[in-house]
Each structure stands twice: as C-alpha cells, then as structure tokens.
Amino acid sequence: MEHKSISQLDRMRASTNVIGDAEYKEAFQNVSHVAAEILSRTLGPYAHTTIIDDGSYRYSTKDGWSIANRILFNDALANSLFSFIKTISFNLVSKVGDGTTTAIVAADKFIRNMAKTDQFKNVRQKDLLEDLETAKETIIQMLKNGGYIHTIQQDGDMEDIYRIAYTSTNGNAKIASMIKQIYLETHNPTIYVNIGNDLETTMEIQNGYRFDCNPIMLKNYTNTDTKEFKTDVGNASAIFFNHNVNYVTHRRLIEEILTMVQDAPALRGMTIILIAPYFDDTLSGAINNANNKFVANGLNPPIMMIQVPMMNTVQKHFYNDFRAVIGNLFLEESAVEMFNRLKDPDKFTDESQEAFKDNFSNLAGYHSCRELIMDYLKPMDHCTIGKDFILVEKYDRNSKDFKEVFEDAKKNYEEELAESAKRMTDLDRTFMNASMRYTRICGKMGIINVGGASELERKCLKDSVDDAVLASRSAYENGYVAGMNLSIISAIAACKKEFTDSQFDAIYDLLMKSFMDTDMEIIRNMMPNWSDEEIDKYLCPVFQRAIQNKYGFDLVREEFEDPNHLTVINSVMTDIEILKSVVSILGYSLTSNQMISMTRSFDRDVFTKVKESEETEKYYRIGKAIAEAMKDAKIFPDVEPLVIQRDFPKNDIDPGFFQEIDPGIYEKVSPVIEASKKTDLNPHEKIEIPEWDKRQETTPFRADLGPTSTGDKLPDLGTTVCHTGGISSVTYDKTSDVINIRDMDQSNH
Questions:
Q1: From CA 701, how far away is CA 634, in angstroms rounded?
Q2: What is the C-alpha radius of gyration for the chain, rounded to an integer number of angstroms?
Q3: Alpha carbons 100 and 64: distance in angstroms, whole number
Q4: Residue 510: what pLDDT?
Q5: What pLDDT is recorded for position 482?
Q6: Dist. CA 169–CA 461, nearest whole Å
Q7: Domains (ranges, CATH) in the chain?
Q8: Which residues of 112-242 form beta strands (DSSP E)?
Q9: What contacts 531, CB < 8 A, 6 or more positions away?
Q10: Do 409 and 321 touch, CB atoms closer than 8 A?
Q11: Angstrom distance (rounded) from CA 241 to CA 505
C-alpha cells in the first residue's frame, strides 16, 4: 500500500467550506461526548451544582437546560453541531419542562455503545434510523398502554405535584411547595412565572381574567404603590380596535376623543384606554404630545395606549375573550370610516353616502360622530394594568358575550383533549393553547415572582421554575410514571418479551443499555469513588425489580417502591419526549455525513488541513522506517512486556505497512498501534502490552527515509515512542536522513 502526498484535488477539497464525512462524524461524536460529560454531573439528587459566571455575577445551578444553554465551544464547527443538540433539547423543555440532561446523556451512551459492536456494521444507516423510529413508537405505546401510568387526583393533596416539581428543580423544596400550594388553591395548571426585582422568590393567587399585553408608557399613568394602574381609582373607559390604528385614518377620531374629554362633563378627568394590535409612530407621537399638554396644566394624561398580540389565531381568540370579559364591542374599520363621513360629510357625495349606508346597514343609524364614539366607549371597571398584563378582577359571568366565548373555549379544549387521547399524541401546542385559553377564562391562577441576587441568577432560576411548571402540568393532565428512567427500561424489556421474534432486539438492547448507563452516572454522582463494577452491583437489583414488577427506587432512602405507591416520579410525557429526543439526536449522527459552514474561516482551515496532511506524511515515512528496522532487527516474542507512552504519534502509522512488510511483525506490532490510538486515556499514562517482543540481536541497522522536500523538519521523537527491552529511543538524523534506534544500554544502531 503506497502512501501518496497531498494532491491538488485534496488541496481543492480543503479549500471549500464543506466539512467532510470523517471530520464531521468525529466532530459530532466529540461534541456529544463533551456535552454529555458536562451535563451528566447534574443528574440525580446527589448531583453537584455548576457555577455559571457571566463576568459580573456568579451563581450555581443544577438545571440541565440552564447549563446546556450556556455551553460554548471555542471551535465554530463544534458550536454549530451543538446547536442541533440544543434545538432538540429546547423542544423537549418547551413541551414538558424536563429531561434535557437525560436525553443528551442517553443519546451519547447509545453512540458509544453502538461503536463497540459490529451488529450494525452491514446495516444501511437509513434503515437503522427507520428501525429506531419503529422501535421508539413501540416503546411509547407500551408506556401508554402497559399499566405504567398513574393519574393525579385533581381533588387530592397534590403531593404528586410536589414530587414532580421537586425532581424537576433538582431538589428545590421552596419552589415545589409553591407549585403544590397553587394547585391546591386553584386546581389550575396555568401558572405565570415572572422575573421579580427582589432577592426572594414569592407566589400569589390571582382571581380574575389575566390578559397579556403591552401598555405604552405605563409609568405616566400609575396610581398605586406597586407602579400599576387601577381603573377603579382612575375612572377609565376603553375602546377596542380589531385592526391597526394609524395617523392617516384615525387622526380625526383621536382629536374628537380629546375634545370630548375636555368638553363632556361625563368624561372630564377620565382615562380613555385605546386597545389595538398596533399604533403607528406618528399617531403615538401625536397622542403623547397631547397628553403632555394636559400634564403641564396639572391634569392626568387622558389617553392610554395598549398594544395586544394578534398575529395568529390563538392570539385573536385570547383578544376576543378579553373583549367579551370587559363587555365591549370591537370598533371595526367600517365604523372608523363611518365616523370620518359623519365628521366631515362635505367630503362625500350623497350617492357615496347612500352606497356606504347600504353596504354597512348596521352603521346607518348614527347621526353624529360623538354618538358613534359613545356607543363603543365602555367602562373598564375592576381592572389592574401592569407592565405586561391586564387583570380583570370582577366581571359579569352571566352576560351573553361571556357565555359565548366561555362555551367556545370549553368546547375547543374538550375537542383537543379528545383528539390528543385518540391519537395518543404528546402535549402539542394546539392542545396546550386550548388548555391555557380555557383555564384562563375560568378565572383563577397562580403567579410565581422569581427573585435572586442578579438578573442572570433570576433568569436561570426562572428557567428552572418554568421547567417545573411545565412538568407539573404535564403530569397533572397526562399522569406520571416511575422516575430514574426505570419505566423506560421496563417498557423496553416488555417490548422484547412481547415481540420475541422482533428484528429490533439489537436496538432494544442498545436503548436499554444506554438508559442503564445513564443511571450509572446518577450513582457516580452519589458515590464518585466507586468503580464501574461497584455501581453495576448496586444497580443490578434495581433494574431487575423494575423490569419484572415495575418497581420504582428511592435513591435518597435507598428503598424500593411499590408500583402503586411511587414517590420518585416523572411525567409520562417527560419519558416519552426524552425517548423521542434521543432518537432525534441519533438521527443527526446517523444520517448526516457532511456540513456546509457559511461561517468557516477558509484560510485558517485550509492551512490546518494541509499542515495536518503534511505532518501525517512525515510520520508515515517514520512509521515505515520503524517497521522495516524491526524487520531487519529480527524481533521475536520473548520475555518482558513493552510499556508504551500515550504521546506516541497516534493515527500516524498505517497497519497496512506492517502487513505489507511482514504479517508476523504486524501481529506483534498491532497492540502498540491500537493502544496509541486510544483517546480516552490520560495523555501521560503508560500502557502495558503483554507478550511483547524483545529484540534478541543487537545487529546494527538503518532505514533510509527516502527523499525529503527542502525545508522539511521531521520531529525528534526522543524517548516518546517506546522503552524497556530492546528499544529505548527513536530519533531522526537530518544530515544523513536516517532513523536511529537506541538500545536500553544506549548503544546506537
């Protein structure tokens, strides 16, 4: 087998921004290994905290997603690859709030375990992924239908909710207690999590309808110590727009409202709240200027603007519900046009006026522009307006409008719930939005205000609280299973037992081992000095009992748990989403073999590739020379073992050369080569290779390297290649272009 110097074609490949098969797969696996190694330390009740330093503040956390979201690699390729893993993890967290660490670690364990077996050597990767998908769906069906799920009694003591939240927050009893208390008082899984301004995290129960929005310049209107605006104190009325408000079309309407506030006794001192999806800058500026004139005269600003999200169907539903709770009508674009015609009738011909009335008969009864405004301007009582919300504390639940939106929300929720159960799907956004809409309109919910010493600390704690809220909600609506991956392991074993002739046995085995290996990391955090054998011995009865009888295990008390009385629990949807995420991560690993990077530095990468290739070529010649020298020296198996250091140039010597020279020598040299390629060893660790060869003869020998290009500097290998027995060092004499090998007695050959 002849080695070729780097070719023009190789140089051309290196000059692209395409990351090829070998580099891509190696980089992906390395990124997976590093991320899993970091995150595995957060697993379990005995996990240590990770300190996050943003340059200004430092705080500690055990939340997997908070840590994963802040991991950065100095290598651009590694960051790009890790972004795939983070995207999958974010989808997991956004659905069920928990499981990031388990998914990343289990996926990495699968990749490592698959590399150790030849079972899939001749299987096409596309086929392997399809089999993985099928096996995944089979396991999910077993989890859902195999008697693993326990339901939460919605009128019970909510201890299960506490345990779910406690597990999700990695042992934060305070947050878990808050979530439990909210469930006890509201029986509403919709919990708002805000970033507060205090050191302490607090909770409150709100009665009423809460609507998310964006009050513009709220600070100019606040009338409470809490920097909020209460309409009962401020005497407010509102107009609801179902369209964007702009200066050209709505200028006259706003001017009329300002005049009415000054002239009409009933409106004097009132705050008129305009609520719309959007106000253009020109109109907003004009309203602010008008408000400033009132303030300069010692009066309250008369017009408040509130923007509402209305970009999609869900947001439109929420906005309509809010309008119905207040008891207003939407001021539509046709009503604005009618106002403009009534305000300035001379601009319109009689024919156009009549045609307009014919097309909009519902507006034909208005005779003055003020009459139209008063018909759409309704009192806004019992409301609190905060920086990002409106809370309607009291409202008429018996009004026709409210009953209509309430029944619509309830019907939509029940339909989505039935459809979800029918398809046995996860908590998708459609169902969650329907559920949120229904629980909001029921009118009672909890709020958690997250505190902390810094903004970064509060934000990361909020991430953890968000996870716990989602995990609790998922368990509340879907049920829970035994924690510590035991339900997944048991379900996989049940699939193997039920489908005895399954073509997926090898995949089942790999998945099961991957989750078992993940549990080993939990024990490793508990007992860091234990060996793998000791951990295996500890976990073996846990896995056996879980597989046979669906038992759980309390790691803190070190007790087995009856399947019907579990305390260490997960939402069933968490386990399902973890399984899905594992397969998704594996999909990237199995089906992708190259990457095009639009941010890659060409010059640097080309230089690196060429340099690496040239170095490999040099080491290649050295390796060949060593092999030939060994052959000439007639090295035979004899006495003591060889000790090889880890800084022996790895991947530089092609075994094919040894086979080509002498198969017998290859058999003896191969352990050294394989040992030199290991990447999971300490860089300065020495490896003992038994039954090595000791050179019996001390016949001098030399090996020519052949011609070298001008300027080549082959490295001095010093004493880093091997020692004991016959060979002490290997060096290169540049003058004579000869490899020199020294005996243990320092004789030169």
A1: 11
A2: 36
A3: 6
A4: 92
A5: 92
A6: 9
A7: 18-150+481-594 (1.10.560.10), 174-208+444-478 (3.30.260.10), 212-395 (3.50.7.10), 396-442 (no CATH), 614-742 (no CATH)
A8: 191-195, 202-207, 209-212, 214-215, 229-230, 236-241
A9: none
A10: yes
A11: 61
- Token duo for residue 31: 């990124």
Q: Write out residues in the chain with pLDDT < 70, as ranges.
A: 1-8, 10-11, 13-15, 234, 347-365, 420-429, 501, 599-749
Q: How far is CA 378 from the centre of its chain?
A: 45
Map residue 705 onto helix, strand or coil.
coil
- Measured CA to CA in angstroms, residue 212 lies from 66, 199, 217, 386 at distances of 25, 25, 16, 9
Query: What are the helix and strand counts (H, E) for the chain?
Result: 25, 27
Closest CA to 461 of 198, 669, 227: 198
Helix ranges (H only) for 327-428 are 333-343, 350-359, 369-376, 400-423
pTM score:
0.62
Give yes or no for a contact between 402 and 325, defined as CB atoms under 8 angstroms apart.
yes
| Residue 53 vs residues 39, 170, 454: alpha-carbon distances, Å | 17, 20, 11
Q: What are phi and psi of 392, to 5 degrees?
A: -95, 110
Q: Please give the single-letter amino acid code of residue 663.
A: P
The sign of the CA dihedral 101, 103, 106, 108 is negative
19-64 per-position pLDDT tens digit: 777 788 888 889 999 999 999 998 988 888 888 887 777 878 888 8
Query: For 479, left (φ over 0), alpha (ψ -120 to 50), or beta?
Result: left
Spell out the residues 6+ positions from residue 127 whose beta carbon is closer than 8 angstroms to its own: none
C-alpha distance across the termini of the chain, in Å: 27
Are the CB atoms for 363 and 335 separated by under 8 Å? yes
Tokens, residue 602: 């060409």
- The residue whose two tokens read 């919300």 is 389
Query: What's the CA gap between 516 and 518, in Å, rounded?
Result: 5
State the SS3 of 49-77.
CEEEECCCCEEEECCHHHHHCCCCCCCHH
pLDDT of residue 701: 30
Nearest CA to 622 among 713, 520, 521?
A: 713
State the SS3 of 626-650: HHHHHHHCCEEECCCCEEEECCCCC
Report which of 611, 508, 605, 516 is spatially closest to residue 27, judged by C-alpha positions: 605
* Structure tokens, 512: 């099961």
Residues 6+ apart with CB under 8 A from 559: 553
- d(C-alpha 613, C-alpha 563), whole Å: 59
The stretches of 379-504 forming alpha helices (DSSP H) are: 400-423, 429-442, 455-478, 486-498
Lookup result for tokens 């034909």: 364
Dihedrals phi, psi of 645, to nearest 5 degrees: -85, 150
CA dihedral 164, 168, 173, 177 (to 10 degrees): -50
Residue 610: per-residue pLDDT: 55
227 sits in the region (left: phi over 0; alpha: psi -120 to 50; else beta) called left
CA dist 539 and 536 (Å) reads 5
pLDDT tens per residue, range 639-676: 233 333 334 444 444 555 445 545 555 565 565 555 54
Closest C-alpha to 215, from 274, 170, 174: 274
Give the pair of three-digit tokens for residue 715: 């490295």
* Cβ neighbours, 10 Å, residue 195: 14
Closest C-alpha among 454, 318, 472 to residue 392: 318
Q: Which helix (H) or strand (E) holds 274?
A: strand 271-276
CA angle 688-691-693, nearest 5°? 100
Distance CA(364)–CA(501), nearest Å, equals: 77
pLDDT, position 488? 95
Report pLDDT for 651. 44
- Here the tokens at position 406 are 């309430």
Contact (CB, 8 A) for 207 and 298: no
| Single-letter residue type at 136 | K
Cβ atoms 572, 545 nearer than 8 A: no
